[in-house]
Each structure stands twice: as C-alpha cells, then as structure tokens.
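TEACHING EXERCISE
Course module: macromolecular assemblies
Task: Read the component lines below, then compare them to the predicted structure of the full complex.
Student: A.B.
Group: 4
Components provided:
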Amino acid sequence: MTEAILPPIAMLAELTHRCPLQCAYCSNPVELLKANREMGTQGWLTLFEEAADLGVLQVHLSGGEPTLRSDLTEIIACLAGRGVYTNLITAGVGIPEGRIEAFAAAGLDHVQLSFQGAHPQTTEKVGNHRGAHEKKIETARRVREAGLPLTINAPIHRHNMHEVPDFIEMALSLGAERLEIANVQYAGWALINRDALMPDRESVERQVQIVEEAQERLRGIMTIDFVTPDYFAIYPKPCMGGWARDAFMVAPDGTVLPCHAAHTIKSLHFEQFGDWKLGDIWRDSPAFNAFRGTDWMAEPCRSCERQELDWGGCRCQAMAIAGDAAATDPACIKSPLHARMGALIEEAARMGAASSDTGFQYRRIGKVAEPIL
Amino acid sequence: MEAIRIRAIVSMQSRPKLRRHARLQYDPVRDAWALLSPERIFWPNEVSLDILRLCDGTHDVAEMIALLADQYGADEADIAPDVTAFLQEWSDKFLVTLQQVQEKCDAVFRPDLRENE
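Instructor-supplied answer key:
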C-alpha cells in the first residue's frame, strides 16, 4: 500500500437473510444463512459502537428483510445515539402496525422501500408474494405519516423495464423524495438467473432516454438516481467506491466483507466480527488489503488514466466472467473479455425468446448451492 | 397521495431550512463538518458551512445575505448571486426547503404545467 488507509464512511448491515419475498435477482449469497446463524443483539450493538468509533457516519440496515429482526428498534436507537445516519432498506411487506412509528421515534433517518413492479401483477410475479404491491403501498403511506423521508427503489430487468415510466409516476404519487432506478447487477441470485433477467439492448437504450428526460423534467421535484447495467457499459463502475476504500458490509453471522458479493472470491478468507475487532479487520485483513488502492492492478488497469475513477471496477464481476478476481472488470472496453459481455446479452436474448414463462429460479434458503466457477 | 408537486424556486422571501433527512454534524474522527443525507455525505467548506448554519427556517434569504455580507466584510450585491445559486442547488438536491410566508397563496394561484395529468 502506497496510500494511507482512511477510515470507513459507510457500512451495509445485512442483519438477516430471512425475507418474505423471493426475488430472483437478490444480492444475497446463493447459500443463505438460517436464523440460527444470525449474530445476536449484543454482537450487533458492539459492532455498531466500534463502527462509530472507527468513523462510520452512515449505516444501511438491510437483509433479507431487516424488520424481521425483533431488535431493530434497539439497533436504530444505538446508532442514533452515536449520531450515525440510519437508512432502513426494506421490502415493506408484513411490517406490524406501530413499528415504523417506533423506528422513527428511535431516531431512524430515512427509509428505502423496494418495488418489484409498478403494477400489482408484476410485483407479485417478481417477488413471488401474493398481495405484496398493496402492502408496499400501505408501508409507503405509513412511512410518510411517520414523517420519514422516502426513497423508492426499483430493481430493473427484462420483466419490468417497460414499466420505468410508471415507476416514476408511482414514486411521485407516493410522495417519495427520491427514486432509484437500479438495473440488476449480475451477482448472487441474479447470476444464476442471468438469462431470465437480462434485457435486450434496444430496451436499455429506450430506458436511458426515458430516465434522462425524467431527471431533467423533475429537477427539484424528485431526485432520480440511475444505476445503469454493467453489461451494456463502456467503462466499469467504481464498485463500492473502490475495494475497502470507504465502505464495507457485514453478513448476518458477523462476517465482514468489502462488498456483498465478495464471498464468491474463494481464494479470500473473510474474518468474523468477534474473532477480530472491526478496526483490525478494516486495516489488517488480508482480504481487505488484497485489492485496496491501485498496487494490485495488472494491465490494462496499471497504466490506465481512469484507475482512480473506477478502481478497476467490480472484483466479483471479474471473478464471475474472467474467472480471475484480479483481472480488469470485463465491463471495461479495455478488457480483453469485454466482447464476452455482449455475447452473454445475445445468449440471454435467445434463451428468453425460447421460453414462455419467466424461468426464474426463486430465492429460497437451502434451495441451491453456489455455482462452481 | 400528495398534492401536485412543483419545484421550489429561491427568492429573497424564502426561509431556507435544512430538511429533516439532512443533518449537519461535526465528525471528530475527521475533524470536519459533514452534511449527512440519504446515500450521500457532503463535506461543506467554510463558506458553505456558514450558509448552511443560517438555514434554520427563521432567516429569510435577504437577511441571510445581509448577515453573511457583514461576516465576510463584503457587499451584499457581490455575494447575493452565489448565495441564491447555492440555495437553489441545495433545494434541488433535497437538502433544504425554501418555505415562504405567502406559500399557501402561491400554491393556490400557480398554474400547473405538468403534462399527462
């Protein structure tokens, strides 16, 4: 490392893998942890105290479905007491009466609510949960009534991309300050469902036009953040803002990782909180130091003028497509494997045209094993 | 669910206020002031910090400009464009609200130009 290690700013806490929805693109690992593997309340509270000491200013409380943790109010209160900004990432299905109000009273700062579709039938089909849409609308109403700011998150793929204009109108009507149009990233469950989820090029181009026009039209009315699909990109994204650069995530059992898909890199070992202090993991974990900064880079990244813009892109995508976590992200036009991304789009289009139903392999605990790469 | 939504435009009568989900706080680890908001953290410089501190809903923009001009020993006319431009940008980024005394009146008489309604 030639560069000093700065303190982390943000962390994603996957409090549980349990979830009432079964989305085929879930970013959780394919091998999901059961409830009995989850870290207890005291473990999480100690971890959050150490995170605040370390310099973490923002915690995203996620899952699975984080509201399934009965200690969530206590967790929010602990973070709020330390001045840490809390963002609840929820599917908004089956949250008992009074809980959102309790989260607000405990000091919750913001709610991000996912919608799988802009219409009930799409939301039900994608999440495989009857009545999900109406429950989410009700959750949005309760979030607003509790005086909490709201972001609507719309994960986009082949089966709902045509609903993007309706997602925008829906987010406006729900009183959201912010809408995330987030194209699915092909890791975790989305990787095993890639052929069923991948959109075609023409739809992606139309989507870009629609979103850019709406961003201009709705300036000062609603913020629209747009996560574009990597497979159609020219340059990679600065995944996590760079490996172990200013953020990390914690799995339900307390395993600390640089990003939520890092476990797919089998050559790395990730420490568990409790065995190591959080600060020691951040500074000294060999896994965190494996791709930190730019020293690890090979060509074409090593001599690339964009290396501190995108930090080499996504290590997990390099693993999934190049079979080498230290390779340039194949989303980059300079990668020798960039053409493979285009071929995978074409392949998915052929497979999609041949199949009549969605072909989803729905997310379930214990259902399938991690694909061998 | 909500009334028709329109973009707020800054005026001398606006009373800017930090939104509930935007929090200005001192970070002892980095010895700096941070503006925390959903998904984003901003690091305001000294001038931005002085403007943000006046965004408490009690000063209107004209008063803010007068106070800042006094603080920096500058002419109000010189700093006014910068202050209003910043406030408009922060309003568009949902960090501050631009409440106005006559807001209710405006809302009733302002024509709605949104399409497809």
